[in-house]
């Protein structure tokens, strides 16, 4: 896997190159926001890890320019700015995930690999092919979710929500992140609308062997039924 790391901190560059390199991730480094898009275009990486605080152009400007040029590589934002507002700005600009500093290196690797799997439409890196929780099964080939042998009938918003949770089994996904995936670009919709989708989805998950849990202060989590 090829990772483009856009980060101006030299010690961080060295640490991530060494650590991720041991996990067979080829890390290419760019420390300047003004040069990042050109390097992105030339390398065609599998994933981009992008710091928000960069010289010349900040991370949000780099991301906006890349998306405007049609570069669709999945992006993981890395930043010490961890407020909800910053996360929303990053996701609105086209980021796929967000990891505040300081972060655990194992979590960083896991998120990078998850983004690559998602973009390639396969779930093989960790033996998850297809993804399954309880009786639910996600088929990347057609984007459908099944309850054992039967296709689970879901609205587009319910499907988007359930897919997002199945991509992170056993981990809470924030309400803000789910809102961006379920209501993309719909700025007039209130955040509470995600709770309505969760309520409807819960009813459809009865009998599937999967439970949608609310984790106060963290978001929502999907796990196998006890």
Automatic annotation (TrEMBL):
Q: Which GO terms describe its cellular component?
A: cytosol; protein-DNA complex
Q: Which CDD domains match?
A: trans_reg_C
Residues with 4-aspartylphosphate modification: 51
- List residues of the OmpR/PhoB-type domain: 128-224
| GO annotation terms (biological process) | regulation of DNA-templated transcription
Which segments constitute the Response regulatory domain? 2-116
- Its source organism is Variovorax paradoxus
- Protein name, UniProt field: Two-component system response regulator
GO molecular function annotation: phosphorelay response regulator activity; transcription cis-regulatory region binding
Kindly give the Pfam families that the UniProt entry links to this protein.
Response_reg, Trans_reg_C
Residue numbers of the DNA-binding region are 128-224
User: Which keywords does UniProt give here?
Assistant: DNA-binding, Phosphoprotein, Transcription, Transcription regulation
Question: At the top level of its lineage, which domain of life is listed?
Answer: Bacteria
């Amino acid at each position: 896997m090829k990772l483009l790391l856009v980060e101006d901190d030299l010690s961080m560059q060295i640490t991530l190159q060494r650590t991720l390199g041991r996990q067979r991730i080829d890390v290419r480094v760019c420390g300047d926001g003004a040069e990042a898009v050109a390097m992105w275009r030339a390398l065609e990486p599998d994933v981009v890890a992008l710091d928000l605080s960069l010289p010349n152009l900040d991370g949000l400007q780099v991301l906006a320019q890349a998306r405007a040029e049609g570069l669709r590589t999945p992006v993981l934002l890395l930043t010490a700015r961890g407020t909800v507002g910053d996360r929303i700005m990053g996701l609105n600009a086209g980021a796929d995930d967000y990891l505040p500093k300081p972060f655990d290196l194992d979590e960083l690797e896991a998120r990078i690999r998850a983004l690559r799997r998602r973009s390639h439409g396969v779930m093989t890196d960790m033996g998850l092919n297809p993804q399954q929780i309880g009786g639910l099964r996600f088929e990347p080939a057609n984007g459908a979710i099944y309850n054992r042998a039967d296709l689970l009938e879901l609205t587009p918003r319910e499907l988007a929500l359930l897919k997002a949770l199945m991509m992170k089994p056993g981990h809470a996904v924030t309400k803000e992140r789910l809102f961006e995936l379920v209501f993309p670009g719909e700025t007039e919709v209130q955040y509470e609308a995600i709770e309505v989708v969760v309520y409807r989805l819960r009813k459809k998950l009865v009998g599937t062997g999967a439970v949608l849990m609310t984790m106060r202060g963290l978001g929502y989590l999907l796990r196998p039924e006890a």
